[in-house]
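Fold it.
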Amino acid sequence: MKRSSGSVIRVALLDDHTLFRDGLRRLFDTEPDIDLVAEAKSSSDLFPLLEREQPDLLLLDLNLQNESGLDILPQLAEKHPEMRVLVLTASIDQEDRINSIKLGAKGVVLKYAASENLIKSIRKVAEGEMWVDHETTKKLFEELADKRGPKAESPVDLLTDREREVTALVGEGMRNKEIADRLFISERTVKTHISNIFQKLDLSDRLELALFAIKQGLAKQH
């Protein structure tokens, strides 16, 4: 069984198109490091499966027939904060993609993208990175810049060396525990650093900090 390996990515799928689910199941059967452990066609079917299977990553169809993936994302963030969500969409609506990231998704993949792109995005997001197309990233940067306004001083100069390290790791998608382990400090210390960084940079949430890290060249990108 694939899931016997500690390196296997346990994936759940929410999509109301049977043919699409069947296609992904066959695709994942060819990938030794990806195990599709749960499939659902509605959120009411999904949440019991998530409780039982505890997947690492959820593939979420944004455009379900009777509900919106955008409405499901806040519930996922509340009930399963450690699980990473990768949004699937057939729509080219950039606003939906931006809102998905704002609501906690770690990436967006177009349904008609090449299968190798989907596989790569799953691996990258599972490793803690973001998977967002250039145009969506640019738009998020613009919104962040508009909110912060012009600054005469380079904002990175406001941070200590340790705060820069923490900012970079947040930009790479790491959770507080992962940052603590990487830097050999406590989670409480990480939280304190992030709180100080928010105050210095006039940021309000982790997404804004991650985007800042990428824009300033502190974080690695895929």
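Confidence is low (pLDDT under 50) at residues 1-5.
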